[in-house]
């Protein structure tokens, strides 16, 4: 109901740019370029959590990009799913270009995008599953670019976890260690032997991505990399150093 109401009000109220607030558009051209107009790059957290696959991000988590992500996730700006999906698709293609995943066009079946799961409480509170919505938009963009891709939202949290905000890297790893699993039989059938890209909106320490990759591998999926819309500016710098 909450998500439905937000979509209706988005049609009635005059929009402002989620990135800079200056335009009567959902996202102005300048902020869209900042979000998804660049070339995705590899990002490396410090320290690197065990089991973290190669990660590519579309943009640093700062300024307009940060505002856009928060507007979609926390304030229900549903119209931002398409440009956010384009940014995520660019990061997926960045993994492909890097060679870390080999040729994601090969293998049996499409490339599966597996979103890092949110807690049920977070999804209920926001009125929508932000990660799944963005992943679906990314898959559409990838298919339009000739890369067969589908979303497999098969990961779930098997136990309660604390809010990661405010936790340092070691506590984040401990918080999510062993917490994710695949939805029983159907999820395992989806993943068995398939090429999987773990996706999320943001990487800070990489703990959630590493845990998601572990859960996918345990269910028989072949993790070929991870892609995020944004990562900390420091994670971009770490790869260059």
Automatic annotation (TrEMBL):
Gene3D superfamilies for this protein: 3.40.50.2020
Pfam families documented for this protein: Pribosyltran
Residues covered by the Phosphoribosyltransferase domain: 187-235
SUPFAM superfamilies in the record: PRTase-like
InterPro entries assigned: ComF/GntX_DNA_util-trans, PRTase-like, PRTase_dom
Superkingdom of the organism of origin: Bacteria
Family, similarity comment: Belongs to the ComF/GntX family.
Protein name: ComF family protein
